Amino acid sequence: MKIAPRDIEQFLRAPPPGIRAVLLYGPDGGLVRERARALVTAVAGDPGDPFRVAELNSAEIKSDPARLGDEAAAMSFTGGRRAVRVRDADDGVAPAVAALLSAAPGGSPTDSLIVVEAGDLPARAALRKAFENASGGAALPCYRDDERALPAVIGESLRAAGLSAAPDALAFLAANLGGDRMITRRELEKLALYMGADPDGGQSAAQGARRRVELDDARACVGDSADLTLEDLVFALGGGELSAMERSLDRALREGANPVAILRAAARHLQRLHLVAGAIAGGAAPDAAMKTLRPAPFWKRVSKFKAQAQAWAPARLGAALARLLEAERACKRSGAPAELLCAEAMGAIARCAPGASRSRRESRAVSAS
């Protein structure tokens, strides 16, 4: 069976008694691990308890398919339900899972819950089918946090540390986190420590700890890892610096950035340029138009942002935004690699940015797209 997004949190807190195995899969490996830990905790209490939690990997099950069934049938020495956590699973473990799920359920409250962690799996994957087609199995996809879910994740983590965030700080964090849930959590824990708070309990870890995260705090703490690559990338894009853009894009992809997230970061930058460029075209002074931005550009980038907003025509920004939107749609529906589609769209826009070296044919290509 599949778990609807609205039911995920309740499912993680209290897996239904009839569910004997859960598959967690998707592109966000950090979220896979976080949810697996939550399930193991819900069933067995301490995830590190060797009497109630067994851990296997894909290679162990492939070499000994009966191992999974043996662990699932084992009883806890200390009482209570056990959990069996399977890491790095792939289609090679699907036969063992299918055999386990096709067997008659035990019905005892001490029956083990099998928690299987996998990467991104296509709909036709044998492992997904084994879970989705079984009454005692559940498949739970783990996608990267989008622009709707990410602010809630950030707010939850900050509240747990006894912190709140100014609106512009929250917007900055949402724009620069979200590629991987575990990395997001670590960055927010680092921010809590920077603020002098305890990331685990919300109690002050030092005298003088502040409770409200401001934009400068977020930039100082998160910018060194999550922000710099994407910010360099989008400014190189807007300035038509093709070589610099390609280097930043390659770095972002090597660091694990999702191509769709990169396209959205580029779109946010161009949207902000469009807002200021439109105001300037309507007669506003550049400095006055810049003051409408929330959050304001980082002070080191103000002059470059203003120059780009004055150089771009609103209509051309609209065409570039349309190109990014189409690239995002293509990433989701076509069979072509998302990294290639992202690079093609970003390259075409950078080549046609004001000040870039380009041919008339290239300019017409982006304007017409």
Structure commentary:
By secondary structure, this protein is of the alpha/beta class. The protein folds into 3 domains: 5-141, Rossmann fold (3-Layer(aba) Sandwich), CATH 3.40.50; 145-213, no CATH class; 226-368, Up-down Bundle (Zinc Finger, Delta Prime, domain 3). The protein contains 17 helices and 7 strands. Strands 2-3-4-1-5 form a 5-stranded parallel beta sheet, sandwiched between helices. Strand 3, helix 5 and strand 4 (113-118) form a beta-alpha-beta unit. Helix 5 packs parallel to helix 6 (126-132) and helix 15 (314-333) runs antiparallel to helix 16 (338-351). The longest helix is centred in the middle third of the chain and has 24 residues, at 215-238. It starts with 7 loop residues before the first helix and ends with a helix. The model is unreliable at 358-369 (pLDDT under 50).
Please tag this protein with its features.
alpha/beta, Rossmann fold, 5-stranded parallel β-sheet, 7 strands, elongated
